[in-house]
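Subject: sequence -> structure tokens, single chain

Hey, anyone have a minute? Need the predicted structure for the following. Not urgent.
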Amino acid sequence: MIDAHDLTKSYGRHRALDGLDLTARTGVTGLLGPNGAGKTTLLRILASVMTPDSGELSLLGRDPADAAQRLAIRRRLGYLPQDAGFHGGFTAFEAVDYVAVLKEHTATRDRHEEVRRVLDKVGLADVSGRRVRALSGGMRRRLGLAQALLGRPELLVLDEPTAGLDPEQRIRFRDLVSEAGESATVVLSTHQTEDVAALCSHVVVMVGGRARFAGTVAELATVAAGRVWVDETRDPRALAAWRTSTGVFHHIGDPPAGAQEADPTIEDAYLLLLETYGAARDAA
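Reply:
Had a minute. Here:
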């Protein structure tokens, strides 16, 4: 459903994507990476909002560089940017209905039924008549997700979809995305490793415009195997350490001889990848 090879994209002297490869199929693929890693640039390219400077890209078996094929992709695409940009004077219903019109849902009765369906999906049915300017930040985020779900897209691109959501809303979001991933290709960026662990069948870690890891969540955790340990005191040689709820310190780095190893998490592995590739990039 998504095949990208050697993608590059630059803004002036800054190279946001630097030879990135990505493959995604039906299911949920999570993008992890620090600010500036190129995640938003990649998602804008996958949403056909932006074109890469070079490289090969196929979306839903089509070439987005071709105008006719790009239109066919967009008809099967749902996209949630970081800022959906709804007009504050629209009601929630009107905002999603406007997007539905842009997506060529021309039959009024069927379109309105679809708008009500997605608003109900994201828990906004009760506030569908409220102006966008009166909605909370979390509600506006869910409104953005509602418009992305219009028409049951085959490709769903979500940029920081859980930003501004409270814990209950994030759990409901996971349910929605998990359901979508049963029949669609979903790609989402997030800073929340717990969302990746709970949702994603595939995870990509981006640093410096490149995919530094691609695999399953379990495979990502093994990156930190043998490099996580616990102790009753903080070891200053660790890359990171914190006191856990049990009172012992969780350490990441190169363990001393005789250390009590702990099971690694994807958070541990992510930190080690940032340390490895971030340091290499800074030294270059």
